[in-house]
Structures are given as C-alpha cells and as structure tokens.
Amino acid sequence: MALMRYGTILAALVMGIVAIVMIVVAGGFPAPSTLGAPGPARLPTIYATLLAVLAGALILRSLFGAPEPGLSLKGSGRAMALTAGTAVCVYLWSMLDFLVLFIPATLIGVRLLGAGWIGAFIAAALMPAAVYGLFHLLLDVPFP
Amino acid sequence: MQELLLGIETVFTWQGILAIFVGTALGILVGALPGLGPSLGVALLIPATFSLPPSVSFNLLVSLYIAAEYGGSISAILIGTPGTAAATATVVDGYPMNRKGQGAMALQASLTASTIGGIIGAISLIVFSQPLIAFVLKFGAPEYFALGLLGLTLIASLSGDTILKGLIAGLIGLLLAVVGVDPVSGSPRFTGPFFELYEGIPFLVVLIGVFALAEAFTLAERGNNTSDKAEKSMSSGSLGIGPALAMFPTFLRGSVIGTVVGAIPGAGANIAGWLAYVQERRWSKEPETFGQGQIRGVAAPEAANSASVGGSLMPLLTLGLPGSPTTAVLIGALIIHGLQPGPRLFSQNPDVVYGLFVGMLVAFPMLFVLAIAAMPLWRRVLALPNSYLAVGIILLSLVGTYSFRNLMFDVWLAIGFGIGGYFLKKLRFPMAPLVLAMVLGAIVESNYARALIMSQGSHGIFFERALSVSLIGFAILALVWPVVPYFMKKIRQNRQETAM
Amino acid sequence: MKTLKTLAAAASLSLLAFTLTAPVQAADYPEKDIRFVVWSAAGSPLDSMMRQLARQLSAELGVQVPVENRTGGSGAVAMSYVMTQPADGYTVLSTTASMTFTMAKGQVPFSPDNFTVLRALQAEPSAVAVRGDSDFQTMEDFVEYLQQNPNGLRVGGYASAGFHQFVFYRLQEEADFEAAWIPFDGGNEAAMALLGGHLDAAVLTPSSALAQIESGEFRLLGISTDGRDEYFPDTPTFKEQGYDVVESIWRGVMVRSGTPDEATDRLLEAIAAVEQTESWQEFMRNNMQSSLDLTKDEMQELVRREVESRRTFLENSGNLN
C-alpha cells in the first residue's frame, strides 16, 4: 500500500517538474506573428499549468485521501531485464543483420520469461523469420 | 438502377472479383501489422494496378482500405496493440476480453461489427453523400475546435475509477500533441535538437509504446503463470447468432457515428472509433463494465471505423477532395489512371463510381468470409503462453515502429514511451485518455488558432454560429451529466429532510 | 557496453575513411542499383513522381531503382540520411521548392552547398481562388478591397511560412495591402473552407481544386505563371494584371554535392531521355504538371536565389526567429 502511495507521489512530482519546465521553456517562445493568433506558447502554457495543478492535487490526495489498491513488485525483475534486453537489441540493430540479431535474442527472451528449451527454439526459428518475411521481403521495408 | 446494373457488370467478372479478393486479403494483413496502415498499403499497391482497368484497380485499392480498417482490430484484441490508429478504441475492451479468455468472441464481435458497419457506411455513401457533405461543409474552424472540445470531455468517462489520474493522463496527451512546429508561426516547440520531431511526436509511436511495449513488459512480470494458462484454455467461446442480433442497435449507432465523422475531413476513423465507444458506454445500462472486457465496447468502435470508409469516400466523390490520408492516396491513384476525381466522375466514368458502390457491397461479405477462414490461426495466437506473446509483441513493435518512417529515432522513442507507459500503468494511470487527448490535441490547437486569426483575436467567434454553439453545449452537458444523478440525490434527500 | 561502443565507433570511422578515400569509379556508372530516397510519404504527389521516374529510369539505365520513403523534419531526416551515404550517385534524393523554405528558416543543418540539384521535372503554380458568387472578378478588385479594408478578408491556404503564403506575401509586397494568413494542414482543407464560406479567398495549387474550378464554384483571379498556364489558359496571370509575381513549386531530384560528373551527367542524360517518352508526358498531363526545363547550373542558381528571397519573406512576416 505504501509502495503505491510513494510511487504515485514520485510520478506526480516528476510530472509537476516537467510541467513547470515546459512553462518556463514556453515563456521563451516567440510572440504571435499573425494578427489575432494565439502564438506558440498559449496552449502549451495552459495545459502545463493545469498539469502542474492536478499533479499537486494528486500528491495531496495520495497523502491524505483514501488508500488505493496495493502495488506488487512481483516479477518486475523480469520486466526490467526484458526492457534492458529490448534496448540492447535496438542498439545493435543498426550494426547487425536482422536475423543474426533477433534469432538469438528471441531465444534468450523467451527462455528468460520461462518457456522451455524446445518451445524457445521453435519460437526463435519462426518469429523473427515471419516478421522478416512480412515486413522486409513482402512489404519492402528497408531495414537499417 | 441502370447505373447499378453497370456496376454489377463491372464487378462480377473474374478479374473484378479476384481484385476484391486480393485487396481484402492484403488489407487484413496490412491492417493487422502494427506500423502499416491503410494509406501505406494502398500506396504500395498502386504500381500493381497500372495494367488493370481503372474500375478494377479502384476496387482493389478500396477493398484493401476496407479490410485494413478491420485488420487493425485483430492485433488490438490478440496482443493489445492497435494495428491501425483507428483500432485504438478497440483495445480498451478487446484486450481485456482476451485476458478473460473471451478473445475469440471479441474477434467475432469485431468482425460482425465491421461487416455490418461497413455495409451501412457503403449504403450511406450511395444514398446520403449529398446531404451529408452539405452538413460537413458547415464545419469551419470554430466547429472543428468545438468538436475537439466535445471529444476531450469524453476523457472523464474513459478514466475508470480514478478520474484525477485520467485527467492527468489526458493532459500528458495534450502536451505530447503540442510538440513540433507551431501550426501558425512555424517555430519549433519542445523539439530539442531533434528535427525528427518537427512534424510532432508520431501518434503511432506513442500507441505502440504505451499499449504494445508496456503490455509486453507487464506480461513479462507474470512469466508463464499457470492461472493465466487456465484462463486461456477457455478461449474457445464463440459469439452466438442471438447475442449478435441483440447487438444490432450497437452496430447501428456505431455505423452512424462512423459514417458522419468519417465524412468530416481531418476527423477520420480514429476519432469516429472513440466517439462511438464513448457513446456506447453512455447508452449502456452497465457503464462500469466498460474497460473490463465489455463486448459492446469492441463492437461499437469497430462498426464505426469500418463505416468511416464509406464516409471518407464522400468528399472524394462529391467534391473531388480528399478527407483523409488514405483518400488522398486514392485520389492520386485515380489521377495516375487518367481519371478526374469529383462529381464529374459520375458522368465521365460511371463504371468506376457504380463499380465502386457494388464493389464495396461485395468487399464486406468477402472480408467476412476471409476473416472467418483466418480465425483458427488467431485462436493459435490466443493460446500462446505469455513468454512467447511478450517477445512476439516486442518484435512486431520494434519492426512496426521502424517501418512507419524507416527511422531508428522512432524506435527509441517508442521504447521510451513503453517504459513510461509501463510505470504509469502500474500506478493505475489509464492510457486511453492519453492517446485520445493526443489525437484531439492537434485538431483543437490548429483550429483554435485558425478561428482566432479569422476573428482577429476575439473568442466571440466560437459562439457566433448555431453549430459551434450546440457542439460546445454538448461538451458542457457531457461534463455535467455524470454528476447530475449525484446532485439529484442530494436535492431529493434535502427535500425529504425539509418535509420531515 | 563500453567496448561495444568503441568497436562501433571504430567501425564507423573506418567506414567513413573508406568512403572518403576510395577512388570513385564512375566511368561505368551505373554498375549497381540506384536508390531513390523520397522525403514525403508513400502516395504523396512527390512520391508518385519519384516512383514513375524510378520505373522509367530503371528501364533506361538497365539497373534496379528501388524507392525508399524517409519522412520527417521537413525533409531533414532524408537529407541527413543521404549525407551518411557515399557521394557516388547511387543514392538520389527527391527535392522540392519547399526545401528552400526549410533551409531559409535555418531549422535544418543543411544548405544548398550540401547538394547538387540535378533537375526539376515538375512545376506547379499557385493561384488566388474565390467562390463563384464572389463580387471579385479580377485581382484588382481583390487588391483594392484589401487596400481599403486592411485585414478585411479571410485568406488562407496550405501551410504556414510555405509556398502559397510566400506567393500571397509577394502579392502584398507588389500591391501594398495587408491581410492575415490562415494556415491549413492541407490544400484540400483550404478548398473545403472556401467552399463552405469559412474563407473569402484561398491561395492554392489550381489542380488540387479542379472539380470546383471546372464547375464554376471557384473562380481563379490570378495565377503565378509567367505566361498563361497550359492547363488553365483562361486564367489571367498575376503578371499581366500588373503584379510581378512569377513563382512555381517545383519537384525534382538531387544528389550529394561532390558526386562525380560522370555519374551526374549519365543520370541527367537518362532523365532527359525519360522526359522525352510519351508515357512520361502522359503522366505529366494527368497530374497537370509543367516542366521547368533548367540546366543543372541554372538549377543551383535558382535554389540559391530562392533561399535568399524566402529568407526576406520569413523575416518580414515574423516567421523567422
């Protein structure tokens, strides 16, 4: 329960700071160039102000309002690992051939998430090949 | 009648039927693959139509368009990723149905809705084009702004049990929409050093991030959980004829919204789907079930986005002007074939126009048959354990995002949105308001600016015409309506107290 | 991770060195596929021109000419992509007059020096359109009204700080009147707004509202061609009405500067052959396109001139900050 509360407050704080930064940045936008036009800064400033206010309200509600359902961290290690793995794959994609990269990546990914070896090998053989065939061969997408 | 006979003659040749078959099959594929939408599919297919007669090639392209609008719902339901932007509203209930083991039923509902909605849209195209376009032309900048405002009020009803978090998600969506060059002055805003962001943050990248990638990361948490597998084995359920018939009012409402909104240039299938979804929730006696896997929440947006095909062809046929990216590509195709889009098409190339009418009426049943034939394949996907599903979603997301602009930058952006979306979802921020606000943000801002330039800065312009006033009125009503029962109860209680 | 980055950096460096030092064998150009990079989306007018050209050029040169769309950053995404490719004539980039606006704005890190524009294959004018029931019959009526009522008409068209606004700005400069510009996200949206009575005049590419012009729902007051336009011969030019505004939006192809002459000459020769064919001319007629017909050197000159004139426009209209 406490986790949900702290998480929400942290998220609200981040949003509030981003909103304030956006307001400051928008303050540096040029004035309207056309007669009557609202100018580049008007709507972003309004939206960001509202966001900052609501983020503040959310912090207050998390502190003093009714508690929200709890937040479970079960399995988030796996999620983090998958996220990191995805980022590494994207980084490598510019250098390696699609199939060379994604066949082993799929194998590792599927294994990591708890599939058996046989299933993982089948998935690694089929899934990247199917994506490659559909996008690159059939629809002519120029891969990096 | 004479003309319809001409249309039938054009379509019912082996070439004509084959064209619709091929177009439909390719359309389902292009629609289901994230990143590729109807406009790209049509554009890629144009060179293949050079040697065909214009009427046949036009039917080929339009049936691809039709099927792609349906195809988007397949990935929306199977992997929680809208295959096309227009299927975004379908995710909100389609994917939860899948998680509850009702994936097959959701797929059937979406197919039935798409077929019926599409046919209603096609008939409207034949019958109502003229009056509807006359109505659409009344939309000036103030009306577009008011329409966007009306759409934004829907956020409250999409927020589930946490209105405050829903509103915050909506504001994040609006702020995402202002990134890029300002519509009036052309000066870049919040783009940093990245000129990749000048045209704004691509909507599709955000969609894939906050829906697909965030979902894959969430699936990874659960691993190959056994309780999940038990649910999955039940996904053999299917939608009977009776329940399908009972949903007819839903199909009809969705179709009407889809046709009208589809005909409004710049609004399109995506907004049509959202409006239909929220209207359906409002009509429902059990609105709290929406977002938890309510079948009508799948049927309404799917009927709407398919009906929008007929609507979006109205400006093309009556004015010769495109109302959406896909119809712009279609106009290009007509020109390549030496045809002049617009009202003169009716007199100069009646075979193309009436062939199109008949072709659309053939394409939707064709879509139904083909999609039914593909069902066993989707059932396979439904039965996949989480580990395969998560990795498969990531693969499709990365490649789909890349292929949208052939740009690695977008892939990194999508991963960023995936991580952000994952955390926000964990903290129970609803994602639907975020994407809806992002769609509407662009319409709201550019038309707000346009209206103010027209009025030289006076906000009075929004209250000058009946149409914009009534749209703004609806928006206010939509905001106030949910709280009316609460106040009614209060008043009644007060009366009882004073009576005592 | 660190070693990987070093490796990658080393690899890209050696690649760069290779492209810089490798002697470019262009005598036998082309000896492999030529890639077309298009900076607008598939199905757009620029894309359909490039695909038509790719098909015909492929037949002419006997190699494959695949087309890739790389959109974003007003063309900057495609430009920076092409800059990473060797200047050997095997990567050809689409280009339009809109490039000169982007370069004049200074928002992209490229200048005319980075590219050699080979040829503008298509050109289209801009025109001032009013509704058929409007009181304005000529440009003079229109200009006089705006001179007496500054900002008294709602005028708009596709894009802000783009070609059509530039033409309108040039008219204002020539005729000395004042009017705000209402930007739209597409020429089609401006045409609809004019049709629905939300605009008093639209500045647009006439072929984009052909149905309305032919039916008399729209009347063109003037057009930005030098002489009468081949597709709209009944429309008087701005020039003949006393406003010296001759502008066109062109579409063509360019390569990285420094591409060997053997390659560019061969490409230009092949393009000239394509332009002679009946199928190309039919394509041009169907799309109502005219030819600019400038040599390579005249093109470079035009691009530089346009960047200059557009910078003045952007400064004066308050769009350059």
Describe this structure in words.
The complex is a heterotrimer of chains A (about 140), B (about 500) and C (about 325). Chain A folds into 2 domains: about 1-65; about 75-140, no CATH class. In chain A, about 70% of the residues lie in helices and about 0% in strands. Chain A is built from 5 helices and no strands. Chain A has helices at about 1-25, 40-65, 75-95, 100-110, 115-140. The radius of gyration of chain A is 23 Å and the shape is flat. Chain B has helices at about 1-10, 15-30, 40-45, 55-80, 90-100, 105-135, 140-155, 155-160, 165-180, 205-220, 225-230, 240-245, 250-265, 270-285, 295-320, 325-335, 345-350, 350-380, 385-405, 410-425, 430-455, 465-480, 485-500; strands at about 180, 190. Chain B has a two-stranded antiparallel sheet. In chain B, a hairpin with a 6-residue loop joins strand 1 (about 180) and strand 2. In chain B, about 65% of the residues are buried. Chain C is an alpha/beta fold. Chain C has 2 domains: about 30-125 and about 250-295, D-Maltodextrin-Binding Protein, domain 2, CATH 3.40.190; about 125-240, 3-Layer(aba) Sandwich (D-Maltodextrin-Binding Protein, domain 2), CATH 3.40.190.10. In chain C, about 50% of the residues are buried. The interface of A and C includes residues 33, 34 and 37 of A.
H/E topology pattern of chain A: HHHHH
Low-confidence stretches of chain A: none
Cα shape of chain A: flat
Measured by DSSP, the beta-strand proportion of chain A falls in under 5%
Helix percentage range of chain A: over 70%
Distance between the termini of chain A: 45 Å
Overall shape of chain C? globular
Radius of gyration of chain C from the CA trace? 22 Å
Structural class of chain C: alpha/beta
Q: How many structural domains does the protein architecture of chain C include?
A: 2
Uncertain stretches of 5 or more adjacent residues of chain C: 1-26
Tally of contiguous helical segments of chain A: 5
Number of strands of chain A: 0
Rounded mean pLDDT of chain C is 89
Biggest chain pair contact, residues each?
A: A-B, 70 and 71 residues
Span from first to last CA of chain C? 41 Å
Q: State the name of the first-level CATH class of the largest domain in chain C.
A: Alpha Beta
Summarize the main sheet of chain C.
5 strands, mixed
Number of domains of chain A: 2
Helix fraction bin of chain C: 40-55%
